[in-house]
């Protein structure tokens, strides 16, 4: 990133401004891994009818978990569930940040930009994921789904803003749930579309812009910082 686009070129901020991120599908390429595990298990077991029944729900933002619409035959059900669990853990263990994310965070961190994460993951799951990602040093505060009401509740964002001691913030996310959480918290919102597994629209109402690369996202963040 050119020095003119980084904090070295920033004027003194008029207010203390923070950047808060969603995790899955925003920083880490870990969205829809459960969907991948389900499809792999069903195909391995030859359960094509079960796959057809859940196809409208696959790789799409949804209000209810995929487990709630998954229909399995009674015979062999436990075997299929164990396979799903096994494949999900394999996919999860292999998930890494999107290309360019670490450098972007390093640039922001080097300019002393306060940063946090608000995720609907539970704390244990998030801690495992961020440990594998090697990104934990960049975030002062995190709110997880078992610590505050889940998004679209604004509580997690408001809590992290308070912990960061910021007056205003931008929230970066990849679904309508993130958009609504930011709106409910009175935050600016930046929409990203990095996940290649997404099959349908991530937003009920299309935002003005969906950023398709980390370079675009970093530029937008610095633009917001300059206007702060």
List the helices and strands and how they pair.
Elements: E1 17-21, H1 33-44, H2 48-54, H3 77-94, H4 101-110, E2 115-118, H5 123-133, E3 141-143, H6 155-164, E4 168-173, H7 176-185, E5 188-192, E6 210-211, H8 214-227
Parallel strand pairs: 1-2, 1-4, 2-3, 4-5, 5-6
Helix pairs in contact: 1-3
Describe this protein's structure:
By secondary structure, this protein is of the alpha/beta class. The chain folds into 2 domains: 3-30 and 96-227, HAD superfamily/HAD-like (Rossmann fold), CATH 3.40.50; 33-94, no CATH class. It has 8 helices and 6 strands; from the N terminus they run E-H-H-H-H-E-H-E-H-E-H-E-E-H. It has helices spanning 33-44, 48-54, 77-94, 101-110, 123-133, 155-164, 176-185, 214-227, and strands at 17-21, 115-118, 141-143, 168-173, 188-192, 210-211. Helix 5 links the parallel strand 2 and strand 3 (141-143). Helix 1 (33-44) packs across helix 3 (77-94). The longest helix has 18 residues, at 77-94. The chain is elongated, with a radius of gyration of 19 Å. The protein starts with 16 loop residues before the first strand and ends with a helix.
């Amino acid at each position: 990133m050119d020095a003119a686009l980084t904090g070295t070129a920033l004027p003194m901020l008029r207010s203390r401004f923070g950047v808060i991120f969603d995790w899955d599908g925003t920083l880490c390429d870990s969205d829809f891994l459960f969907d991948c595990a389900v499809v792999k298990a069903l195909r391995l077991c030859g359960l094509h009818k079960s796959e057809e029944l859940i196809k409208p729900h696959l790789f799409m933002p949804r209000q209810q978990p995929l487990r709630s619409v998954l229909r399995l035959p009674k015979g062999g059900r436990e075997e299929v569930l164990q396979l799903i669990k096994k494949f999900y853990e394999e996919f999860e263990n292999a998930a890494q940040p999107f290309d360019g994310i670490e450098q972007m965070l390093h640039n922001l961190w080097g300019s002393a930009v306060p940063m946090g994460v608000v995720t609907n993951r539970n704390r244990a799951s998030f801690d495992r994921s961020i440990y594998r990602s090697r990104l934990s040093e960049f975030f002062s505060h995190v709110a997880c789904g078992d610590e505050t009401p889940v998004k679209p509740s604004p509580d997690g964002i408001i809590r992290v803003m308070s912990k960061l001691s910021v007056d205003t913030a931008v929230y970066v996310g990849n679904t309508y749930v993130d958009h609504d959480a930011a709106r409910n918290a009175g935050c600016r919102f930046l929409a990203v579309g990095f996940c290649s597994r997404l099959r349908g629209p991530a937003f009920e109402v299309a935002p003005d812009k969906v950023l398709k690369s980390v370079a675009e996202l970093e530029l937008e963040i610095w633009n917001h910082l300059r206007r702060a």
